[in-house]
Design goal:
The structure holds 2 protein chains of 2 kinds.
Chain A (H helix, E strand, L loop, with lengths): L22 H8 L5 H4 L3 E5 L3 H13 L2 E5 L17 E2 L11 H11 L6 H21 L24 E2 L5 H18 L3 E4 L2 E9 L2 E9 L5 E5 L2 E4 L20 H8 L4 E2 L4 E7 L22 E5 L16 E2 L1 H5 L9 H13 L11 E4 L1 H7 L1 H19 L8 E10 L2 E2 L12 E3 L17 H21 L13 H18 L7 H15 L6 H21 L11 H25 L23 H4 L1 E6 L8 E6 L14
Parallel strand pairs in A: 1-2, 1-9, 2-5, 9-17
Antiparallel strand pairs in A: 3-4, 6-7, 7-8, 10-16, 10-18, 11-15, 12-13, 12-14, 14-15, 18-19
Helix pairs in contact in A: 3-6, 3-12, 4-5, 5-12, 10-11, 14-15, 14-16, 15-16
Chain B lengths: L2 E7 L8 E7 L8 H15 L21 E2 L2 E2 L21 E5 L8 E3 L2 E2 L2 H10 L19 H11 L6 H5 L6 H12 L2 H4 L2 H14 L10 H5 L7 H16 L11
Parallel strand pairs in B: 1-5
Antiparallel strand pairs in B: 1-2, 3-4, 3-5, 6-7
Helix pairs in contact in B: 2-7, 3-5, 5-7, 5-9, 7-9
Classes of the chains: A alpha+beta, B alpha+beta.
Bound molecules: flavin-adenine dinucleotide, iron/sulfur cluster and FE2/S2 (inorganic) cluster.
Chain lengths: 646, 257
């Protein structure tokens, strides 16, 4: 038997006993191990090759497990993590500004507005320093100073410099590090890589996750893959909004299929709207582009003091500009957390002070930074971001301020996991953005990369052993079982239905419609009435979609419309759950702002007496309300206070 | 804008394929090239035709998925951009635009504009890594690294693996891609230990995949969206020569305990 105690309820996280600072070390000392000889007899499926999946796959293969890795792109190196720009946090205290594990832990809990699990967050802060060591050893070229040591910058919501970065391409460099580690293990035979494969279901045998059904996207073939455990590292679901900063292919399908098979989906309404993105330019828009938060280190955000001011920004004198973040939040100024900055921008635009053609934008101005440091220094810090902005907008940010507006960026919600990162389905582990993770109701900048790599390099490799120790005598899992038969049949039926319904409308038509509803009713601010209406509207979209969507071509070939259709079908169901979750939570916290619950100054008003819980939802059938399980959050080491960045 | 598109259509790997004409209207100059393709595809679906398959994901120039050969240039007109970063304002009303997949023996076409670039992955698998396990590495600041070396390593490491260098080269050589990884790793103290084995293994794999030889025409550098410099090729050649001359492969030692 595992040292790990029995569960007392479906949402028992089984957090180890003992003082906060000792939990992880003690736990690692007591989880069961699998001997090297036995690891060779154990197969693990890892779906996803972003930071979380690639780091997990490489680490597990190095330890001796047989790993099968899956991604829908043509190469694991192209996972969405590649696009992360700004940086990765770690409590190294290289800058000697008083940083520590405790401070990173505290900032993350506070930034998440007291809706995350204490023990997990502490562990994240604890392993953060090792991540940087690991990446440097792999050859990740982080920024350095002239003494040859690593450089740091600061990000929103904190008062120390703990963010490591590689120009504006930190995610790329970290992912290429993990990808190279994976490549090494692919060459050694420890990982079998399946590119252009999409997982379409998880297979449970006697209640345990024992495999997946995947579609080979190149040939259309439906394949069965078995293993002793399944790890999902399939990223976030921001694309439910249609427009987001996520890569076009990012989707919820893997997580949603697991949810339908019994895995609880936690806090689905906690989504992050990032304050600094390039505004929407027209109906043709297919995605939004982030301008890294690091820009808020040196850029100042403002709108004109006069409503509907149409002058060019450079013609508006200093005293007629409203640096509203500096005005409202003097202590943190432009570096308030994302949820606060986004809502403040929306507030100004809704009140009629927005700029640009659409009036749905605010300025991010580098004039003072250029005067202070010179254009060269600004270029060396942010050059590629400025260039990216100019390519898209045709405007030069060295000469005129950037126009920015909030956009969907990250999803804090995801599949519920316990302290070992296992969902309530035995043998189904969930890592990275796909789990509900450590960020509570709002994620701090540069913490997603940290979490993905912590999960994959330093947490799962230890905790999965505790589960797999029971499987050393199981032998290979057969794919010729009634459970695999049933799962495959279900997948095929669904594809068949999409192909043959004789509809007329392209998939994007439905995706845009869904996105608009969710953005308006379950975006930066929400209210009960809007949410109820949204649920009804989304259910109507679902019915219409299954009747009238048109997917051309055939199942047995590369068919990108079919891929999109499957993903949108799942987004539609998820959308209804997000609204249900937002409706249940009669409080405002972090990214979840319910108009009915705010302070007189318009700040989020939490209700700790009634809502200090993780909302973990159990699937009850399409179009049916899900069933709520509450994981109560207990803070033993931190006092819950109203967040203030004033 | 009104445009005449001429697009390569190929049903599958074994199909012959041909250029097909698609007139398109109502295109805004603010659209990205791929958004223009989205408009075309939605129109094709509504008409009951098959949409054009193309690879894309991030749509911000970093994942390396997008890969269209536009009017005779990989990633189209404009320097330092990928296909997804190309905007319709780069074209004029009434233009004819030719759109084809990458052409190289080592990148076979899968469908329409989608090619198989897994050869690049295999080159990296041959040696594009530093052999270190997850676990307990030394402190990140234990080895200071000269900022200039670290910056040059970074420049080389920004390669996105798109394959435009191969598509631009008349020999379909993968030297720019391979040398970028070789340079990135060998410029760092952590990567120097294995540099000899690495350069031999990666070049060997490159040849096995059927990429052509480098004849120093420099077309790759011009078309590379990330500005990867051909200095990297020179650096790799030096390392390769050094390694090939001094190197004898280690003898396998079996048995023992
Ligand atoms: C523009 C942008 C900038 C960002 N910048 C930062 C930053 O500076 N710092 C920071 O900390 N965070 C940042 N983030 C957030 C961070 O990048 C992500 O949260 C993180 O990379 C997610 O990693 P992941 O490994 O969980 O998933 P992903 O990287 O999204 O990977 C998902 C993987 O799953 C695979 N997959 C998904 N579904 C399936 C399926 N059904 N079948 C098979 N495979 C599947 C995909 O192929 C992919 O390999 C940024 C995000 C964006 C959008
Ligand atoms: S070297 Fe340049 S062109 Fe070649 S794959 Fe890398 S980024 Fe693309
Ligand atoms: S789609 Fe990612 S680089 Fe173009």
């Amino acid at each position: 038997m595992s040292e790990f105690r029995e569960k007392t309820s479906i949402v028992d996280a089984r957090v180890p006993e003992g003082p906060l600072a000792d939990k992880w070390v003690e736990h690692k000392n007591h989880v069961r191990l699998v001997s090297p000889g036995n690891k060779r007899r154990i197969d693990v499926i890892v779906v996803g090759t972003g930071l979380a999946g690639a780091s997990a796959a490489a680490s597990l293969a190095e330890m001796g497990y047989n790993v099968k890795s899956f991604c829908f792109q043509d190469s694991p190196r192209r996972a969405h993590s590649i696009a992360a720009q700004g940086g990765i946090n770690a409590a190294k205290n290289y800058q000697n500004d008083g940083d520590s594990t405790y401070r990173l832990f505290y900032d993350t809990i506070k930034g998440g507005d007291y809706r995350s699990r204490e023990a997990n967050v502490y562990r994240l802060a604890e392993v953060s320093a090792s991540i940087i060591d690991q990446c440097v050893a792999q050859g990740v070229p982080f920024a350095r100073d002239y003494g040859g040591l690593l450089d740091n910058r600061s990000f929103g919501g904190v008062q120390v410099s703990r963010t490591f970065y590689a120009r504006g391409q930190t995610g790329q460099q970290l992912l290429l590090g993990a990808y190279s580690a994976m490549s090494r293990m692919i060459a050694k035979g420890g990982i079998k890589m399946y590119n252009r494969h999409e997982m379409l279901d998880v297979v449970l045998v006697e209640g345990k996750a024992r495999g997946i059904i995947a579609r080979n996207l190149q040939t259309g073939e439906i394949e069965r893959h078995s293993a002793h455990a399944v790890v999902l590292a399939t990223g976030g679901y921001g694309n439910v909004f249609f427009l987001s900063t996520n890569a076009m292919g990012s989707n919820v399908t893997a997580a949603w299929k697991a949810h339908k098979k019994g895995a609880l989906f936690a806090n689905p309404c906690f989504t992050q709207i990032h304050p600094t993105c390039i505004p929407v330019s027209g109906d043709h828009q297919s995605k939004l582009t982030l301008m890294s938060e690091s820009l808020r280190n040196d850029g100042r955000i403002w709108v004109p003091k006069k409503k509907g001011d149409t002058r060019k920004p450079i013609d508006i004198p200093e005293e007629e500009r409203d640096y509203y973040l500096e005005r409202r939040y003097p202590a943190f100024g432009n570096l308030v957390p994302r949820d606060v900055a986004s809502r403040a921008a929306k507030e100004r635009c809704d009140a009629g002070y927005g700029v640009g053609a659409s009036k749905m934008a605010v300025y991010l101005d580098f004039k003072d930074a250029i005067n202070r440091m010179g254009e060269d220094v600004v270029a060396s810090k942010y050059g590629n971001l400025f260039q990216m902005y100019e390519k898209i907008t045709d405007e030069n940010p060295y000469k005129t301020p950037m126009r920015i507006y909030p956009a969907v960026h990250y999803t804090m919600g995801g599949l519920w996991v316990d302290y070992n990162l296992m969902s309530n389905v035995e043998g189904l582990f969930v890592l990275g953005e796909a789990n509900f993770s450590d960020h509570g109701a709002n994620r701090l900048g540069a913490s997603a990369l940290m979490q993905g790599l912590a999960d994959g390099y330093f947490v799962l490799p230890y905790t999965i052993g505790d589960y797999l120790a029971d499987d050393i005598r199981t032998g290979a899992i057969s794919t010729q079982s009634s459970e695999f038969d049933a799962a495959e049949k279900e997948v095929k039926n669904r594809l068949h239905q999409l192909m043959n319904n004789g509809g007329t409308k392209p998939v994007d038509y439905y995706h845009k419609k869904l996105g608009k509803i969710i953005w308006e009713q379950c975006g930066m601010s929400r209210n009960a009435e809007g949410l109820k209406q949204a649920i009804a509207d989304i259910n109507a979209i679902r019915e219409d979609f299954w009747k009238n969507v048109r997917v051309p071509g055939t199942e047995g070939e590369l068919n990108q419309e079919l891929e999109k259709a499957g993903r949108v079908a799942d987004f539609i169901e998820l959308g209804a759950l997000m609204c249900q979750d937002a409706l249940d939570r009669n409080e405002s916290c972090g990214g979840h702002f319910r108009e009915e619950f705010q302070t007189p100054e318009g700040e989020a008003l939490r209700d700790d007496d009634n809502y200090a819980y993780v909302a973990a939802w159990e699937y009850q059938g399409a179009g049916m309300p899900a069933r709520l399980h509450k994981e109560e959050l207990h803070y033993e080491n931190i006092k819950m206070v109203q967040r203030s960045y004033k | 804008m009104n445009l005449k598109l001429k697009i390569w259509r190929q049903k599958g790997p074994k199909d012959n394929g041909k250029m097909v004409d698609y007139p398109i209207s109502g295109i805004s100059p603010d659209m990205s090239f791929l958004e223009m393709m989205d408009v075309l595809n939605d129109q094709l679906v509504e008409k009951g035709d098959l949409p054009v398959a193309f690879d894309h994901d991030c749509r911000e120039g970093i994942c390396g998925s997008c890969s269209m050969y536009i009017n005779g240039e990989p990633h189209g007109p404009g320097r330092g951009i990928t296909t997804c970063q190309l905007h319709m304002r780069s074209f004029a009303d009434g233009d004819t635009i030719h759109i084809e997949p990458w052409r190289a023996a080592a990148f076979p076409v899968i469908k329409d504009l989608v090619t198989d670039r897994s050869a690049f992955d295999r080159i990296i698998q041959a040696g594009g890594f530093i052999s270190v396990n997850s676990g307990s590495p030394v402190d990140a600041n234990a080895i200071p690294i000269d900022k200039h070396d670290s910056d040059r390593a970074f420049d080389a490491a920004t390669c996105i693996g798109c394959g435009a260098c191969v598509a631009a080269c008349k020999n379909a050589s993968a030297m720019l891609f391979t040398s970028a990884k070789v340079s990135h790793l060998s410029l760092l103290p952590q990567g120097q230990v294995e540099s000899r084995d690495r350069v031999l293994a990666m070049i060997n794999q490159m040849d096995e995949e059927g990429f052509g030889n480098c004849t120093n025409t420099g077309a790759c550098e011009v078309e590379c969206p990330k500005g990867i410099s051909i200095e990297n090729i020179a650096r790799m050649n030096r390392q390769y020569l050094g390694a090939a001359i001094s190197y004898s492969p280690p003898k396998a030692t079996g048995g023992g305990d």
